[in-house]
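Entry for manganese (II) ion complex. Fields follow.
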Amino acid sequence: MADDAVSVTAVVEAVRENRLWQRHMDIAAIGATGRGGVNRQALTPEDGQARRLMLEWASELGFTASVDAIGNLFIRRAGAQPASDPVVAGSHLDSQPTGGNFDGVFGVLAALEVLEAANDAGVVTGRPLELVVWTNEEGARFQPATMGSAVYAGALQLETVLASSDSDGVTVEQALAGTLKAAPVPVRRDFRSPMAAYVEAHIEQGPVLESTGNTIGVVTGIQGLRWFQVEVGGEEAHAGTTPRSNRRDALAAAVAMVTKLQALMFDESDTVRFTVGRFEVAPNSPNTIPGRVVFTIDFRHPDQDVLTRLGDRVEPVCRAEAQDCTVKVVETMNAPPTEFDPDVRDLVRSAARRQAFRHMDMTSGATHDAKFMAGLCPSGMIFVPCESGVSHNEAENASAADLAAGARVLAEVAIRLANR
Ligand code: GLV
Ligand code: MN
Ligand code: MN
């Protein structure tokens, strides 16, 4: 093993901006919508195709692959001590229905770039270096989000999530079988198999780095979040003949609930994040009174007390506004705020400083798989700017230079961790 400082410099210098950018464009072609973004939702044929491409790149580079029972994909570059726990970096390849080309993909490709740069530099690390592609980070098709990392960490049971179904009734179990067939990996990986450390690179998905002129965000933690699904049951009836007094209008009740919740969640400081992102009305016909509405709530805050206080009000508010309808509120996700390991944060900060990138500490508004890894091993994240802070949008964009900067910081952190 070479001296750590020599190895770090060699790998950082071997990171190739053009190669990293080109790989983003190659992945962006899979599920491209034609409007600049992608629809590559979890466990679709497009997700399978993207994983297959990752496996092809891995095999060309001499890396080995393994997969666990929820489809999390691991790609390993061997170390000098094969039995030691790996240093792992990665993110996700699934997207929102109208997603961008960088959310998740960057963390996966930055990790691949680090592994390939280590090859090019001829550096042998002590610990193995691993890349991970987590299954269903987005939670758009199957709920909840960050599904693969939650199951890996033991926060969710495999059997529970395999039964989760999309709006067409397809289960995770069925869709996963298709994905594993499209991107086969014979080697099995156990849940909770130990990691020495986990580091995730990601675009910021907000405006702070760009507006402050920083290239690197040293992520200190992730705000907490709670997801709910609210199902309102009314009675279908004729729109032209049914008097108001006879109606059980599920949409009218749902609108009242959302209005009250919006008021409850309003805060002057603009810290609360409250979103009703899905609203399904049945039978969705102009002249039938809606008999059923299902809507989702995404509620986030950095302070656990606020998450508890306001989140616990969701069900009583919905009940109070139900009028003559039935209401069922299910909490589908409850994640407390996460704090990342101080040592990993220090490594990210000092790598940014040593490489002369302007940097700042920040918490993450978006959630990430790193949240679950933080309970398993020392973990952290590296943010890079995205254009105008736009994300979960087909217009999402980032510069090749900023992506390369993030990969170089990741390289330094990963090599230092892998030589401990
Ligand atoms: C991840 O995409 C999130 O919802 O924060
Ligand atoms: Mn993401
Ligand atoms: Mn996302």
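NOTE: The radius of gyration is 23 Å.
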